[in-house]
Design goal:
Blueprint lengths: L2 H21 L10 E5 L27 H11 L4 E5 L10 H10 L4 E5 L10 H5 L5 E5 L5 H7 L5 H18 L5 E8 L7 H11 L3 E6 L15 H15 L5 E5 L5 H4 L22 E2 L2 E2 L1 E3 H5 E4 L4 E3 L10 E2 L12 H11 L13 E3 L2 H16 L2
């Protein structure tokens, strides 16, 4: 099948998924738009604010089975991207390049979250630059060496910068924009005053997007490091956007761990807060006298654990609903469990694992259409 045919298939799936979300379908017509894979749960760093530092969260248990990736590969062709993350560093997986190749050959776009410490050591920079469409999301917590190395323990600030520059240079040599580099940065007391320096690092790396997210206290000892003043966060985001604007870098904000009632209708379909969203209540709907909710994850995403098990999303804590090493995913996607969860959310229920999640938003057709159009345009431009 040609690349053009693959592109049209993903474009069509994007439109169908938008219709599913607008209608609040419990049995969705679309195939998953986003597939998240927990690649492994090993890491070479020891960041105090990471979920790995919560003693209740399992770690160092293994790598995602390659057979689970192969069994899921027919579904990759319909997905706008396939996220490779998990509770570890993906480039420690012994088959990471093979996994990326399986995804790209299926016609999808891998989206990898990395701490950017191992690329040159493992000699993957040129391979990444030659693989085709890919998103590479780099965790950057701090705009200065002191702050960065305080929170990214065992990482070297200069080494990470060298890796980012090496990748930019490899892309320039091949005359390719891929992989597209984005930054993900935690907003906390130590970093909120360094948002402009983080943007400067993004400029140096040739990054396209910087997403700031309020630190989620997986480790309760980190609770004091959180920034609780939403106005202070907004002011920092304004500074970051002013710094980024001349360079064409987009700044997003995820106010994680803030419940939907505290956010009001702020946050688009993905939970991003934009100027257009603030105070927009025109399209809010209620069912049976209750506020109607929406979650993109439940409507168009699947999450595969490091064991190959299927969960509703990466924030879901109530167990798996299947195993890709044994089950056919086609039997799971519209299973009774999945349909019930979609029904509950669209009828104003908040399941326990969803309380406080930034992905749970007030149902707003305008935001759903806006997000669908953005997905379509981004996909068209690949």
């Amino acid at each position: 099948m040609s690349l053009l045919d693959r592109q049209y298939r993903r474009l069509a799936n994007t439109l169908i998924s938008t219709a599913d979300k607008l209608l609040g379908n419990e049995r969705v017509w679309a195939k998953p738009l986003r597939i998240h894979l927990e690649v492994n749960d090993f890491c070479n760093l020891k960041c105090p604010h990471c979920p790995r530092e919560n003693p209740l969260i399992p770690k160092n248990t293994g790598h995602i089975p390659i057979e689970a990736i192969r069994n899921l590969s027919p579904w990759f062709r319909h997905a706008t991207y396939v996220g490779l993350a998990g509770n570890g560093e993906p480039f420690l997986h012994p088959n990471i390049i093979e996994i990326l190749e399986i995804v790209t050959k299926a016609g999808s776009t891998p989206s990898v979250i990395s701490n950017a410490t191992l690329w040159k050591r493992f000699d993957v920079v040129d391979k990444l630059a030659g693989m085709g469409p890919m998103l590479l999301n780099v965790s950057i917590d701090g705009g200065t060496k002191a702050t960065f190395e305080k929170w990214r323990l065992k990482a070297n600030f200069e080494e990470v910068r060298e890796n980012l520059v090496a990748l930019r240079q490899a892309k320039e040599a091949r005359r390719t924009p891929f992989p597209i580099v984005n930054f993900i940065s935690c907003l906390m007391k130590d970093t909120i005053g360094e948002v402009e320096q983080i943007v400067d690092l993004a400029v140096e790396a040739g990054a396209s997007v910087v997403t700031f997210q309020n630190m989620y206290p997986y480790n309760k000892l980190m609770d004091e490091a959180r920034v609780r003043d939403m106005d202070e966060c907004r002011a920092a985001i304004v500074k970051a956007r002013e710094r980024a604007r001349p360079h064409g870098i987009r700044i997003d904000w995820l106010p994680m761990s803030v419940d939907v009632e505290e956010r009001g209708t702020e946050g688009g379909s993905y939970g991003f807060i934009t100027a257009e969203d603030a105070g927009d209540k025109k399209s809010v709907r209620k069912d049976e006298g209750r506020q109607r909710y929406h979650c993109d994850n439940i409507m168009h995403q699947i999450h595969v654990t490091v064991k190959g098990e299927i969960k509703f999303c990466c924030f879901w804590t109530d167990g798996a609903i299947g195993d890709l090493t044994k089950d056919d995913f086609g039997d799971l996607w519209n299973s009774p469990e999945w349909r019930k969860l979609r029904h509950d959310i669209t009828h104003g229920e908040k399941p326990g694992p969803c309380v406080g999640c930034h992905n749970l938003v007030v149902y707003n057709p305008r935001n759903i259409v806006r997000a669908g159009v953005k997905d379509f345009v981004d996909l068209w431009g690949q």
